[in-house]
Write a structure and sequence with these properties.
The chain is globular. It contains 13 helices and ten strands. It is an alpha/beta fold. It has two domains: 185 residues, D-Maltodextrin-Binding Protein, domain 2, CATH 3.40.190; 117 residues, Periplasmic binding protein-like II (D-Maltodextrin-Binding Protein, domain 2), CATH 3.40.190. Helix 2 crosses helix 11.
Length: 318
């Protein structure tokens, strides 16, 4: 009887321990399907944070409503650092202005932790256009307003807004041709139907190297190690067109500042690992971590920039 009792107590203790362990779980919500940069970054973080914290870290892909389904889950989570959000820039800095009845107040509903990684965007031209430089493009655009057009993945996308910002800064008239996704837009630029496009560098790099596309300039503050031969637009006299595709880490509102700082520090250490940097490079990304206050300021400034462009250009979501 005594042995049976001790055995039963032992089993009960194990079950309680297992239950407690199961509850000590960290969830990183990726509000888009598996396979893209949001998913890749989420899995890198989950692996690194699991090693650092000892918690079981899992990625939950929760696509739907243009990312809002997953974002809403994190908004409603406990602010204990165990439910985090990895999300692209557009959901934080474009959609609040572009989308009618946007359901979140980013500043009120979330605590920014850190930017994670970014990819440069590039202005490309079909090689047959003979536009060898930004100077060539501007000369033609000003000589014949409206004669040049640029493709984008859709109205209100970051790449559409990059074009609108370029038009504003250069005082040129380029015709916007929206598509449903990057693939169809890029195909028509390669085919010569549309001469120009602002695109992620990773999506176009192979075509640039093959000579099918001409890289006119990066929309970033500096050249990239992925393709150091491509100059920035700023180097060529076009200032104020800084548009990168970046991804950030956020937590629910109420997350303590000390915890946010620690998560930012952990993320920076994870992304600085040589093996992880190579993994990012394969995706065309580079780590771009910040402190929480820096990241919050970046979100606020970029939101204000896009709000001005969207309102000035009368851009309405599809």
């Amino acid at each position: 009887m005594k042995k049976w009792f001790l055995k039963a107590v032992g089993v009960a203790v194990c079950l309680v321990a297992m239950s407690a362990s199961a509850q000590e779980r960290m969830t990183i919500v990726a509000p888009f399907p598996p396979g893209g940069p949001v998913d890749v970054l989420s899995r890198i973080l989950a692996d690194g944070l699991q090693k650092k914290t000892g918690l079981t870290a899992v990625v939950e892909n929760l696509p739907g409503a243009a990312g809002n389904l997953g974002i809403d889950k994190v908004k409603r989570a406990k602010p204990d650092g165990k439910t985090l959000l990895v999300v692209p820039a557009g959901n934080l800095t474009i959609n609040p202005t572009l989308m009618p009845n946007f359901p979140f107040n980013i500043e009120r509903d979330f605590v920014p932790i850190t930017m994670l990684a970014k990819a440069p965007n590039v202005l490309v031209a079909n090689a047959q256009t003979k536009l060898g430089s930004v100077r060539d493009l501007l000369a033609q655009a000003k000589a014949r307003p409206g004669s040049l057009s640029y493709a984008s993945p859709g109205i209100g996308s970051g790449l559409h807004l990059a074009g609108e910002l370029f038009k504003q800064q250069t005082e040129t008239d380029l015709l916007h041709v929206p598509y449903k996704g990057t693939g169809p837009a890029l195909n028509d630029v390669l085919g010569g139907t549309v001469p120009l496009m602002f695109s992620n560098l990773p999506a176009t790099l192979a075509h640039i190297k093959s000579g099918k596309l001409l890289a006119l300039g990066l929309t970033d503050t500096a050249r990239t190690s992925v393709a150091p031969e491509i100059p920035t637009l700023a180097e060529q006299g076009v200032s104020g067109v800084v548009v990168t595709s970046w991804y950030g880490l956020l937590a629910p509102a109420g997350t303590p500042a000390a915890l946010a700082e620690q998560l930012a520090k952990d993320a920076a250490e994870i992304l600085a690992q040589p093996a992880v940097r190579e993994q990012l490079r394969a995706q065309g990304l580079s780590d771009a971590t910040q402190k929480p206050a820096e990241f919050a300021a970046h979100i606020k400034a970029e939101t204000q920039t896009w709000a001005r462009i969207i309102k000035a250009r009368g851009i309405v979501a599809e």
